[in-house]
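Two quick folds needed for the group meeting slides. Do the first one here.
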Amino acid sequence: MKKTDLQDKVTKQNKIEKADICIFLIVFIIFGFALLSFFPAILTSDCTSQIKQAENNSYSLGHPVIHTFIIGNLSKLGGVWVPALFQIIVFATIWTWGCKVARSDNKTLKNKIFQVIVTTIISFIPLNFLYSITLWKDILYSYSFLAMLVCIFIGIKKDFKYSIVEIILASLSIICVMKFRYNGAAVGILMFIILLLLNFVKQRKVKISILFICTLIIFNFIISLPQKILIEKSQNNSNIGSVGGAFNGTILHTMGALLNTDISLNQDEIEFLNSILDIDEWKEKYTPYTASSIHYNPSLRSEIFNTKQGNKKLKQIFIKLVKQHPKETFMHFARVNSIWWSISEKAGMHSVVLSNDWIHEIENGRYDTHPIIQKGNEILIKYTNKTMSHTKIYKLIYRPAIAIIVSIICIIAIVFKNKRKNIWYILILLPMLLNIGTYIPLITSQDQRYFYPCFMTQYYIIILFANVFFTNKINYNENNKQKSNIENPKTLVIIPAYNESESIQKVVNSVYEQKLEGLDVIVINDGSKDNTLEEAKKTKAIVLDLPSNLGIGGAVQSGYLYAYKNNYDIAIQIDGDGQHNPRYIENMIKILSQENVDMVIGSRFISKTQYDQTFMRMLGINITSLIIKIFTEKKIYDTTSGYRAINKDIIKEFVNSYPYDYPEPVTTMQMILKGKNIKEIPVEMRKRQTGVSFITPLKSASYMIKVTLSLLLNSFRK
């Protein structure tokens, strides 16, 4: 490829498209409306504690310092709405970028519309618009998680041969995952090692691998600067204790489960545990789904196990009891982890926050909610409560277990679509599983925000699923690659007729007046109740009298069957009411005989000269035209035109299958999906010679509904 060609390709890929703008604005507007409705933002005590640290320039390790630094200092610019707006922009940007990257292999209009629909649905889910304005560290962590998934997909798509820009983006997303939550360190390190090894194996360039490592080190240094400069390392920030770390919380909670079993303790162990918390109270306060009543118990004396000696003794007792009661230990962890493996809720789950009332007293009303759009606040609270009170909806959009199951099913489906090509898609699941794995031994409550990355994974995998499955790869048949070049084709003009006694002779005669060689006319009398049959017999046409009214589909298919049985090269359908002008027949035959075309449609609208249709009929035509465009990437202007010429291949197709009612839009889309080449030519229609139209407004509405459903169902068939 020439350098200029490569530059053009890169420019085209990076060009901002209408779909990108649409996706970004959907997220920004809906999330922005939520911000104005819950102004200035949604906060809990964790958030206000972090903001105070930034205000007082007294940072601690209780929360990731980089997150405290970001939300605290952004709040100084104008209030807590600033970091909330920042979060909205971050998600809108990453999601838009992720959709664009996914769309690079499937630029069909259908895929773009699907992405817009999914974006709209995601934006209207309360979990997402409320989390976007809640200043928890879990939110930016989850958004960084999403960015990392996009980088993994880029690697899969490019066989892990990352460019310099992509290496920078991958390194930045991994470092953010590592720094925004402490458990993210394990996730980020493992994913970096995997991507680095795959990149080296596929690219075999030491310089690129060194660049990958150096980029990660540089970003780690930059993002760690606030912690290095601002943190007071001597501070003790956790009421659970800094010695032993977060695992102490797990020990205290699990100990409650073990104390409620038939355990064996010596007097020294009993006295030690009682010094931390009265054993009877410990047993009483234990619940398998949250440790709050133990961790935040006023009687808990954390200083006992917050020394090296005390911590060592606590762990010795814990290990002893675990060995004695492995089954009870396992059941405890199964229960407390049920939030991510059980679709049904085992216990109350900490989910979304709808007001700042519960921090009113501790913050003296400083962060009270003052909605700019009061009505919006009322509507969104009511809407959120309804989604949470509806059992099925609640499970579908709030339970992490559903997100995990959907993600796994979609990835399995993608892999089985093309095993050799798509096997690496399994890597998309790995960060989510690693994130869950870091919580299995540490989780102490049913807190949904810990598993928000599961939802980010689910949303993006759905986009990738559509990218793989909703494609329109239409491959033309081998025999259609060359021009037909049929000399003197044998042609049959099919005229379906129902109560056309006033016009049928004129229509037949006008066809024969074209004086075309090898052309025959067949009139299909579809159970007419007037003299159509007698009038047709007065002409040179072949007349086929159907025993009963089969409708337009049955009548036309009968003509195609006659053409197939009698080995015609071309079949042309025209109406018996005289509106189709036969002077275009010669051009239709010429196109089918000499060009790589399987069907020619006489279009009233391709030249935009005839708009004498009713509003309902034009609406129906525009809707069907849009649907065909979405699913085939081909614009058909006159989807209902019965003035059509087809070659032998399509004659055979129509003999085997042809819709009973309003067949033109459905069969046109079917043929495009089967790889047939279709061409529209401009034609001018004449007034009906019968002067009667059987298409009433009610029938038009009925047609619009039926044909829309038929097209949607047929879009998945080839």
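Then this one, please, same format:
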Amino acid sequence: MPDEPSRAIRLFGTEEPLPERRELRAGPLVCTLEAGNLRWIRLGGVEAIRSLAYIVRDRNWGTYNPEIRDLVVDQRSDGFTVTYEATARDATQAYRYRARIEGRADGSLLFEGEGEALSDFVTNRTGFVVLHPVDVSGKPLTVEHVDGRVVESRFPELVDPLCPFQDIRALTHEVLPGVRLRCLMEGEAFEMEDHRNWMDASYKTYVRPLAKPWPYTIAKGERVQQRVTLEVLGSPPAATASAGPAVVTVRVGETAVGRMPALGLAAPAEHLAGALARAELLARARPAFLVVHHDPRKGHGAAELALAKELGARTGCPLVLEAVIPCLDAEGKPSDDLSILRRDVEALRRAVDAARVAFARVAVSPACDLKCTLPGSVWPKAPGWRDLLATARAAFPGVPVGGGMFSYFTELNRKRPPADALDFICHTGSPLVHAGDDATMMENLEALPWQYRTTRSFAGDLPYWIFPTAIAMRDNPYGQVPAENPHNIRQAMNRVDPRERGLVGAAWYAGYLAHAARGGLEAVTLAAIGGPSGIVVTPQPEPRPWIDAAGVPLVPSYQVIRAHTRLAAGEVLQSESSAPGSVQVLAVRTPRGIYATLVNLTPEERTVRLEGPGLQGLGARRLGEASFVAACSDPDLLVAGPAEPLGREVGLGAYEVLVAGPPG
């Protein structure tokens, strides 16, 4: 065996250092400086703004990690000033900007940015982005427009598929009773989108309206000046520390709020062969199904379907077909011609017959819907929902046929299918579309209940499936491809993300399941059979620190999947956490007894106080730093072997998952 893995590898799967953070104070205001931008701006201890950032994006919506120089932080007794210079660059272009941030004694704040293109600079967005936290959903909002109009409105409650507010100059909302915050944005017209569409737990107000052409070019030497001012209206109480709670109270009741969804794995065609070598371990994880992705544009055919059949047989898993229907004309352009639709579905049926594979259910999507269509843009030609589903149903008689989007909830929300045409509805998800840091990844779990409620608002009681969802991005609806990651770092839209191999990734999956269990879903597809999001280790060209050297067969997320597949159809009990952004809880009653999962979503230790009947006497097992090595080799870590008694208080280490169940 190689040396013991470092703490960084155990937690994050990468040795990349964590970003430096510094807490800043100005009267009643407390915020965190990170990478030149501000996070968690609080007034009197209440989060008012989740993020205030100057960002630079490329033509694929990828966000640059700027090089920061000459950073000066002056924290005074009555406020602070921050100045620096930053450069965003790649092999073909560069953009430099100077920033100044000032926090004042009354809690007001100014953030100025002046940029200059060092070359012709192609970008989809360059400038300020303001995030309001998801907790303001449905609350009053005053909108000042560029033309001087003032409109009293509210933050959207259900997730708005479009841009709820445009041509914005300022936004004002109540933070505390009698305390309001006015956010003034200057330099260009701003607009707001409901960030929850992308699983971001915020409302995003950004520069340069989407109605303008993009990508656009900032000419070499051209200067860009913008400014954001936060003005406090009222008298907030004194600032409080921004650290998380020392003790989190978790309550579990006796009332059932739903059924535990079935839990399955993604089965990407390119990783089927590698997964067959780990079929025994995958079978022990007991996934309820495998979602087989099939896209003839990528060369998928009967051979890949035959591999899926073999993997299904060796794992005992029913197969679900996720079929991309090309719907392309002779010139390779999207088409709504029904004869082309029938041609493509018939070709799919022939491939399925040639492989002699059976599917328990089938979902279909035209290929063009794998890419984003922005509000106000013209949708590409595609068969209508009813024609698409009727054609698929004729090709697969007796099999439930559904659809929605193989991309994200965003696209489903913008192109809503008729519920009566579907046997089930589906979409996927990603926590790292807009930012690539650990805190954002965990925070974005907060958006899930809103996505579930919004889907129910137009899908009714249809069976609701989450299709392949993972930390690493399998496809990029907003650019050509996901980002490559040769340096094994944290970044948005990674095709290969190191956190899939760390405890932080396992904690994210456990947190997702806690939300999904309360969301009334029928089935959830998380992680994969192999590859970048695989719960077992299969061959791949990208280096995996320690994992490759040790030759281990598993990653920690295996343990989370293994521990929760056995709970399918159990009664999900009412539960709550006093700090849901720090600790999530899931409690399920099965014929064997009650099972409870506690997950620490933070890198700090947490103490959890348990309240409620049925928890005492349970035996607890842990997935954490001390058990990381065992988690990569022992498939039964969280389901068998020695267990500690679950007490009234338990400590959870960084990103630790505790699973408790009946003794024995």
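Slide caption for protein two: Residues 270-568 form a domain with the TIM Barrel fold (CATH 3.20.20.80).
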